[in-house]
């Protein structure tokens, strides 16, 4: 999990397989960014090979906390197998999903 | 008739990667399921095994349970059963999630596993077996959807 | 106490790749065996499973047998049993190969499996079980050799 | 299994895992080369990830036939995990094993 800074956004790039074994570390990392006062988060899912419902749950939890703090969470996700997980749970309509980090950190609404 | 493969493994999250590898290899070698359908299989099986592991670990007996994966692989379909001995539950009385448009949807960080299994599979059955649960997943090469 | 994993699979050569993948993953995740020792484990287990598959397939009953792989993984050692139901044999009365210098060594294209298992393992045991054979292989992280 | 011609030697490059599932195809291919009258064979094992006793047995069988025909079989094998299989069966003393195809096709005895 590599995090970086882009135009005022904290960008966290996830990789590998996210399931009940690995989701807790992802949750910790994202909550740590929130605890540091980061309010604009981009989570890049393009190197994620597998995402299960626990991983989705972590993202839902982060979205809730970000909104409570008045911040914003954006996802980068283009891989069909990962996009599909959002679609069949209809969570694609809850998240702001972008094609690239560039697109995500640009101002305005999701393309 | 197809091949039968069985895997018994400790009820621990770190075994999910092994389960996915086994399921992917046997489905790729023994069935005509396309890759995207094998992705669906991998996710449905992960959800079923994660529930079995969760349930085993909620037991306060201190007993470290195991989970059994039973696979039947045929050219046109794969059937996977996931069995645990963790007491069972009633799959017909789960509270559904609010639709994603409603703000209170975000209160629900869990409860997506069984809906996902139902969406991904051509058939899901739960049955009580041996003091626990057996989930049966059917995935065909030519899904109904 | 360590983890116990069991895999039942059809007695067919095309399952050896799956067996190697399973054994490699569980040994890498659950033991401190170095990679070279995991290579040894992979080869010893392949030989034992190939013999079990060969024996099952020599049966003229037309029955398609299965082979059972039982694994116990601990930090310092891995124990693997390979069980078949193919009637058994006497491992103490196998004809040894001539030394490699003698020209008649080249008459022997087979019979290297059990000697390899013995060389690669820290312990090999054969026992009769359930109308067949169980081979038990022990590999430690710090081999005797 | 890619075969090529080098200085009068037929070079067969094997790859993947050689066990009772895949050894029959290797045997067929080598016997076909012998049947075509090729008497000087190089078998390159450097892309082989796994070799079991059945694979060794195939090579022993080819060696026997090559010798009967008055030909020669040379192996290219540098990977420690494959070299080890020859060593513990003491078959390293039965085969002519080289570090490279160049070395194998050069005249003379094994280095
Ligand atoms: N194998 C099982 N044994 C016992 N309870 C189970 C089992 N599978 C599911 N459940 C129950 O059903 C609930 C819903 O499961 P699921 O939809 O997968 O969501 P989640 O696992 O995220 O809670 C679980 O929280 C659990 O209470
Ligand atoms: N599980 C088994 N069941 C029956 N016979 C076996 C079994 N394992 C080995 N054998 C016998 O022992 C012989 C020697 O085995 P091995 O040393 O592995 O060489 P190979 O399998 O190449 O013959 C086999 O040919 C077979 O007759």
Topology:
The complex is a heterotetramer, with 2 copies of chain A (111 residues) and 2 copies of chain B (145 residues).
Chain A: E1 2-6, E2 9-18, H1 23-35, E3 40-51, H2 53-68, E4 72-76, H3 80-88, E5 96-98, H4 101-105
Parallel strand pairs in A: 2-3, 3-4, 4-5
Antiparallel strand pairs in A: 1-2
Chain B: E1 3-10, H1 16-30, H2 35-58, E2 66-73, E3 77-84, H3 113-120, E4 123-129, E5 132-140
Helix pairs in contact in B: 1-2, 2-3
H-E string of chain A: EEHEHEHEH
Task: Give the overall shape of chain A.
Answer: globular
Beta fraction of chain B? 25-35%
Specify the overall morphology of chain B: globular
Strand line-up of the largest beta sheet of chain A: 1-2-3-4-5
Give the end-to-end Cα distance of chain B, rounded to a whole number of Å.
Answer: 25 Å
Low-confidence stretches of chain A: none
Distance between the termini of chain A: 26 Å
Overall pLDDT level of chain B: 92
What multimeric state do the chains show? heterotetramer
Description:
- The complex is a heterotetramer, with two copies of chain A (111 residues) and two copies of chain B (145 residues).
- Helices cover 39% and strands 32% of the residues of chain A.
- Chain A is built from four helices and five strands, in the order ββαβαβαβα.
- In chain A, a hairpin with a 2-residue loop joins strand 1 (2-6) and strand 2 (9-18).
- In chain A, helix 1 packs parallel to helix 2 (53-68).
- The longest helix of chain A has 16 residues, at 53-68.
- Chain B has 145 residues and is an alpha+beta fold.
- Chain B has a five-stranded antiparallel β-sheet with strand order 1-2-3-5-4, with helices on one face.
- Chain B has helices at residues 16-30, 35-58, 113-120, and strands spanning 3-10, 66-73, 77-84, 123-129, 132-140.
- Chain A binds chain B through residues 17, 19-21, 50, 52-54, 56-58, 60-61, 63-64, 67, 80-81, 84-85, 88-91, 93-94, and chain B through 13-14, 16-17, 20, 36, 39, 42-43, 46-47, 50, 53-54, 99-101, 105-110, 112-113, 115-116, 119-120.
- The complex binds adenosine-5'-diphosphate (2 copies).
- The site of one adenosine-5'-diphosphate has 15 residues of chain C, from helix 2 and helix 3.
């Amino acid at each position: 999990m590599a995090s970086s800074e882009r135009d005022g956004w904290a960008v966290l790039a996830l990789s590998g397989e996210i399931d009940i074994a690995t989701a807790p570390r992802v949750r910790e990392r994202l909550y740590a960014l929130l605890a540091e006062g980061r309010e604009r988060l981009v989570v890049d899912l393009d190197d994620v090979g597998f995402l299960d419902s626990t991983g989705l749950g972590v993202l839902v939890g982060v979205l809730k906390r970000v909104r409570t703090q008045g911040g914003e969470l954006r996802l980068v996700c283009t891989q069909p197998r990962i996009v599909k997980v959002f679609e069949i749970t209809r969570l694609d309509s809850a998240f702001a999903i972008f094609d690239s980090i560039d697109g995500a950190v640009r101002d305005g609404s999701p393309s | 008739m197809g091949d039968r493969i069985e895997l018994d493994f400790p009820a621990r999250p770190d075994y999910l990667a092994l389960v996915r590898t086994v399921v992917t290899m046997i489905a790729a070698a023994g069935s005509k399921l396309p890759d995207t359908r094998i992705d669906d299989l991998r996710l449905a099986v992960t959800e079923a095994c994660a529930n079995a592991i969760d349930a085993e670990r909620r037991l306060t007996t201190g007993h470290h349970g195991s989970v059994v994966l039973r696979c039947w692989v045929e050219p046109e379909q794969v059937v996977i059963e996931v069995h645990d001995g963790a007491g069972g539950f009633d799959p017909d009385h789960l509270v559904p999630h609010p639709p994603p448009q409603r703000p209170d949807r975000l209160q629900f960080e869990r409860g997506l596993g069984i809906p996902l299994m139902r969406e991904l599979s051509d058939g899901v059955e739960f049955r009580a077996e041996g003091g626990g649960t057996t989930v049966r997943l059917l995935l065909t090469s030519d899904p109904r959807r």
